[in-house]
């Protein structure tokens, strides 16, 4: 999937507005993921997954930071996330279907907190973006 | 409760009666680990999974494949009660094994292909359709107790 120039500027604008809140959004997206799709919890048997858990917050921040990094290097997401891609292929091996689920939850969280940002066009661009990130992270699976 | 037509039941049980559970199970599990290598994450204790040759020859893979397909056979024998039949197994896969239910769908897809390769033309479209429903129902039942 190819991000158009419009897509890229839409995505950069969203992350620009989100700014320092990205970490919190990441945590909330994760929490929503675990509640809406309980099967995703199978990847975190070692976590405290209760509401407000420090581990969810911490991990959400990590996820958000990766998304910010991808947005900041949107012309070369594969390059920017290469190490993360290796990690997912060799160690984590999260089933590819779950990236769609988390991407969806991230969009929900943006919609919840920044409804005016998420016009249909921006929504489309952001959806393409999270899709592209998921593709990069699973690219080396086989 | 799932509704099976008489024809569907016949297609499922007829094929099943001709399946060598040990061989078919071993092949299905090996193919799962080869075609979707990330599924190997659940089998770090199985030793050498470094290549298709290693996976195909791995005795632990064979044994576990047989175990998995034998369980599948329980579903075939209890078509009208698959959710109840797999309730305990579902809890086990959630609470102890921590298996993402997507893997049940992946294995179901693999099983269909293995059956198709074994039965050739006898695996008619109607047959495939019944079996696609079967693997979907089994995957759903195994995911049913997840929380």
TrEMBL record, chain A:
Record SUPFAM superfamilies: Globin-like (SSF46458)
A Gene Ontology term for the protein's cellular component: haptoglobin-hemoglobin complex
Pfam entry (one): Globin
GO terms of biological process kind: hydrogen peroxide catabolic process
Listed GO MF terms: haptoglobin binding; heme binding; iron ion binding; organic acid binding; oxygen binding; oxygen carrier activity; peroxidase activity
Source species, domain of life: Eukaryota
Keyword set, alphabetical order: Heme, Iron, Metal-binding, Oxygen transport, Transport
Residue ranges constituting the Globin domain according to the UniProt record: 2-142
Family per record: Belongs to the globin family.
Role description: Involved in oxygen transport from the lung to the various peripheral tissues.
Name used for this protein in its record: Hemoglobin subunit alpha-A-like
Organism: Columba livia (Rock dove)
TrEMBL record, chain B:
Molecular-function GO terms, alphabetical: haptoglobin binding; heme binding; metal ion binding; organic acid binding; oxygen binding; oxygen carrier activity; peroxidase activity
PANTHER family to which the protein is assigned, alphabetical: HEMOGLOBIN FAMILY MEMBER, HEMOGLOBIN SUBUNIT EPSILON
Keyword Heme in annotation: yes
Domain of life from the UniProt record: Eukaryota
Subunit structure and binding partners: Heterotetramer of two alpha chains and two beta chains.
Homology family: Belongs to the globin family.
UniProt xrefs under Pfam families: Globin
Gene Ontology annotations for the cellular component aspect, listed alphabetically: blood microparticle; haptoglobin-hemoglobin complex; hemoglobin complex
Organism classification: Eukaryota, Metazoa, Chordata, Craniata, Vertebrata
Domain Globin positions: 3-147
Annotated signal sequence range: none
Protein name listed in UniProt: Hemoglobin subunit beta-like
Single GO biological process annotation from the record: hydrogen peroxide catabolic process
General function of this protein: Involved in oxygen transport from the lung to the various peripheral tissues.
Entry keywords, A to Z: Heme, Iron, Metal-binding, Oxygen transport, Transport
Natural source organism: Columba livia
